[in-house]
Write a structure and sequence with these properties.
- This protein is α+β, with helices and mostly antiparallel strands.
- Helices cover about 20% and strands about 20% of the residues.
- It is built from four helices and seven strands, in the order ααβββαββαββ.
- The chain has helices at about 1-5, 30-35, 75-90, 110-120; strands at about 40-50, 50-55, 60-65, 95, 100-105, 150-155, 160.
- The strands form two sheets. Strands 1-2-3-5-4 form a five-stranded antiparallel beta sheet. It has a two-stranded antiparallel sheet with strand order 6-7.
- Strand 2 (about 50-55) and strand 3 form a beta hairpin.
- It is extended and about 90 Å long.
- The N and C termini lie far apart (about 100 Å).
Length: about 170
């Protein structure tokens, strides 16, 4: 009965609980607009590849910009992501299950500034650090161009690609 002598009340197990076991409840990490409208979203639209807007019953809107990420990231890269989140998203950033990065903002002016900032961040070789895309019809900004041969993609049949016929080898003349 050590718990009873310490003041533990089995009728109210969370009362006066002080513990370092496990993380805080997940909703304490939500941005304010997400907390306010949790479970009250009417619909969402894909505005362009990688940019979504979610509209709540209250009329609040959340714009999400999805960027390509890598499975393993350097500390420098994570710090840069956090710097972007601090500048535009009140310090909130989200990683998807496929290691993409999502930045959420509440107004179109900030959305525009965020997209311009992300498009301006490039590696020394010229490729985008944070290519916008991955949601909706289209390609990632800064990704390799689409294949030159026809493709067909249907949800039930899966994606298939038909490459062009091979070029016959050149004949050597001796």
């Amino acid at each position: 009965m050590a718990f009873v002598s310490s003041g533990y009340n089995p009728e109210k197990p969370m009362e006066g609980r002080i513990s370092d076991i496990g993380p805080r409840k997940y909703d304490s990490f939500f941005p304010e607009v997400i907390k306010k409208n949790f479970g009250k979203w009417l619909y969402h639209e894909i505005l362009e590849p990688g940019v979504l807007v979610h509209v709540a019953e209250s009329g609040d809107k959340v714009y999400t910009v999805r960027c390509g990420g890598t499975r393993t990231m350097s500390v420098t890269n994570i710090r840069e992501i956090c710097e972007i989140a601090d500048k535009y998203c009140d310090g909130h950033v989200r990683w998807t299950t496929r290691n993409n990065i999502e930045f959420m903002v509440t107004d179109e002016a900030t959305l525009k500034a965020l997209k311009e900032d992300l498009a301006g961040r490039k590696f020394a070789a010229g490729s985008y650090k944070f290519p916008i895309g991955g949601t909706g019809d289209g390609e990632l900004v800064g990704a390799a161009p689409a294949p030159a041969f026809p493709t067909s993609c249907t949800p039930r049949a899966g994606c298939t690609a038909t490459p062009p016929p091979p070029t016959p080898p050149a004949r050597l003349r001796l």
